Amino acid sequence: MTTLMINGKQYELDAEDDMPLLWVIRDIAGLTGTKFGCGIGMCGACSIHLDGELVRSCMMSFGAAKDKAITTIEGLGSEQGLHPVQQAWIDKDVSQCGYCQPGQIMAAAALLRENPNPSEDEIRTKMTNYCRCGTYLQIFEAVKQAAQLQGEQS
Amino acid sequence: MSTLSNLSMTRRQFLGAAAAGAGVFVLGISLPGCAKVDEQDEGVINAFIGIDENGVVTFQNPFIEMGQGTYTSIPAIMAEELDADMAMLKVVQAPHGPEYRIMFNNTTRFTGGSFSVRSSYMTMRKAGATARAMLIEAAAGTWRVPPGECKTEPGVVIHRESGKIMTYGELAPLAAKLDIPADVPLKDDASFRLIGKPIKRTDNRVKATGEAEFGIDIKADGLLYAAVKQSPVFGGSVQSYDQDAVLKMPGVVAVEEIPNGVAVIADQYWRAKKALEQLPVTFDEGDNADFSSKSYLEKLKAALNESGVRVENVGDADEAFSEAAKTIEAVYHAPFLAHQTMEPMNCTALVTKDHCKVWAPNQGADFVAKVAAEITGLKLDAIEVITPFLGGGFGRRFIMDYTAQAVTLAKKHPGRPIKVIWTREEDTQHDHYRPMTAAKYRAGFDAQGNPLAIQITTAGEGPSGRLNPEFLKDPTIDESIFEGGPHQPYAIPNKRADVVNVTVKPVPIGYWRSVGNSQNAFFKESFIDEMAHAAGADPVEFRRNLLTEQPRFKKVLDTAVGMANWKSEVWQDESGVKHAMGVALHESFGSIVAQVAEVAVDDGDIQVVRVWCAVDCGFAVNPAIVKMQMESGIVYGLSAAWSEEITFEKGRVMQSNFHDYPILRPDQMPAVEVEIINSGEPLGGIGEPGTPPIAPAVCNALFKLTGQRVRSLPLSQYTF
């Protein structure tokens, strides 16, 4: 058993060290908001925050994550409510099939932490997750909206 | 409150709740010609609506949600007539069975063909209106007033004179005891508050919090996971494998054969996958190990010189060509394509002695039930189908291959739910592909440059003929090969079209968003552009001149061209980069779409800067969703045109994941503007018609920019 801190909670997990963090989070911790898309770190559906850094959890092993704090889509908001990025995603009706959106939201939250007011160009180049439904324009709009919401809250 | 569940209740749970007096009012709508259901259900047919004591309206949706908005548009149509509050709606996926076969005179049910809204619009309105009438009758009976003195506001019935008010939740148990009225009048269109309005999606909150449950997320007690390896050559089978090599690995439960491969079952997916990678397995490659897409393409090109089957014959093309002052000819082809849903294929199944439960992302619950019944030997009513949200469909989830695997494995391990998950590599290499197609287009002009004749030969194999031959009107003509090529609105006096069926077996082919239109619109609209240039005309003017008798098409074209402020000539931006516009116009699934693409080429790199899109789908039931589906369709078509291609060598698919099958990235995304034309014509589809025009619009702009005519896709094979 290994202790892992996910969304501020301690999980006692039994997994091999080489198991990708993605599958530990999904199948052992039971947090299925983080999605499997490609398994090679390209699509970003599995994006999470590891000690505040955006990572693709399919490319990170369980062993390498042991002493780090993990945030998944389930833990992005707070007790008080949704994260501004989630709120913006709802306001802008971004989701279509929705499968990639937890990863998109995690990527957007990381972008806004690094840069609270990204330009259109920065959004287009820093948001690298794939969406097969083609919601990219709504994603760009929602990131701008989230930046504004975040600005109002702080 | 806003609730939404993607899980299905079984019919018995849904109807049983009413029978048990649990305060759920279930409305059965009898529709003429509707399939009869079994006697035990007391004649309840098409049970769509349940209302509990709190007024929560549970809506049994016959259509699945895969992004296209059916969990918003379909219930909104019902809620309009019911006068229900959208926030009090709980949308669930209807179980399989005849009650929910509401398409094509109540014969079938599936989600595809851009059919959901247009095939159920009146059914859903009637379902809502009938329930509302019963709630009013129940209130009137309670108050001992004539029903005509009552009105509704969202969620309540009000007696106009006295101001008495009862909620739908209070009235539901009373209404459930009433006879179902026939021919309830429907609302005036002018009083719509939901239909025709940009209603927000009902699923956007759960999809922003991670709560939305997809097939791959299903949880069940005692769940086991399976990883599969299928024969790399289509039609091949497992020759041998050594299960002893992996059975002692951590968590491994069993190694099992499946129809075209082998599966490892373990307590965790990762363990199953790891063991499978180490499992020694050899395949008998069968008869198809020499198949290559290159040689198939040569076959298709050769077939373009055959006579084929005539599918269009207007005027006398032979005579017109013999009199033509000028003739042009071009051969086009389009590659095999994969669907690449973001959620890879997966399915979970649990088989017991007398029951089979299948959690299957699917585009037709009846298809799932049929496959599960065949494999288990159980009757259809012993099969329970749970349809979660789909992480994309695009036509892929009509095919039940992954479902069959899960049920096959679950049957071998009764009492244990087993979840099969394909890797992206399996998903890419065992798709049912958009078939490769080739076409030869020929046009003749008079001395003034007016088109006299067009002749089209299309060669390939279509998914309809392969998968649903029973749907073909004529067994020798599979429209899914050539649809979108012939039968065009352009006024060309002599037209001839032929189709040559060239089987591509053993390659599995399937329905890919917009089906035959996906390649034939590229051929046809590129060739119309070639014709315009051959005639020395502007491509917009050339089309307009051929559409004088087609005001609907002309209006759509004019709208897109107007939005774009159409430029006939190439221009340079402030950095000296050249830009040009291309146009395409195409009808599919009952809707007409025109797109203008602004394309730039900077040092050999293509940029699609902006797309203007006009759509006439008759009437936009939810304009926000129509716009989103246009954008979505454009992205899907643009992605394919830009960089997607499946190739075969030695019977194997050469691509495996997004590194060698690239899909459109965010930094490639053009700006998109959409305008909707509510023409009042019959409702058209919306999920697919945005896809076909984008490839030719972009390629026509590229021709203007570079002089290079693109006659095969993807663009990534060209140097500009």
UniProtKB/TrEMBL annotation, chain A:
UniProt keywords, alphabetically: 2Fe-2S, Iron, Iron-sulfur, Metal-binding, Oxidoreductase
A Pfam family of this chain: Fer2
Record SUPFAM superfamilies: 2Fe-2S ferredoxin-like, CO dehydrogenase ISP C-domain like
GO-annotated molecular function: 2 iron, 2 sulfur cluster binding; metal ion binding; oxidoreductase activity
Keyword Transferase included in the entry's annotation: no
Domain 2Fe-2S ferredoxin-type per the UniProt entry, residue ranges: 1-76
InterPro entries documented for this protein: 2Fe-2S-bd, 2Fe-2S-bd_dom_sf, 2Fe-2S_ferredoxin-like_sf, 2Fe-2S_ferredoxin-type, 2Fe2S_fd_BS, Beta-grasp_dom_sf, Diverse_Oxidoreductases
Residues annotated as transmembrane: none
PANTHER family, per database record: BLR6218 PROTEIN, OXIDOREDUCTASE WITH IRON-SULFUR SUBUNIT
Protein name: (2Fe-2S)-binding protein
Organism, scientific name: Methylotuvimicrobium buryatense
UniProtKB/TrEMBL annotation, chain B:
Originating organism: Methylotuvimicrobium buryatense
A GO molecular-function annotation: oxidoreductase activity
Pfam families named in the record: MoCoBD_1 (PF02738), MoCoBD_2 (PF20256)
Name listed for the protein in its UniProt record: Xanthine dehydrogenase family protein molybdopterin-binding subunit
This protein's UniProt keywords: Signal
InterPro entries membership: Ald_Oxase/Xan_DH_a/b, AldOxase/xan_DH_MoCoBD1, AldOxase/xan_DH_MoCoBD2, AldOxase/xan_DH_Mopterin-bd_sf, N-heterocyclic_Hydroxylase, OxRdtase_Mopterin-bd_su_IorB, TAT_signal, TAT_signal_bac_arc
Lineage, highest ranks first: Bacteria, Pseudomonadati, Pseudomonadota, Gammaproteobacteria, Methylococcales
The UniProt record lists the keyword RNA-binding: no
Domain of life: Bacteria
NCBIfam families: TAT_signal_seq (TIGR01409)
Span of domain Aldehyde oxidase/xanthine dehydrogenase a/b hammerhead: 209-287
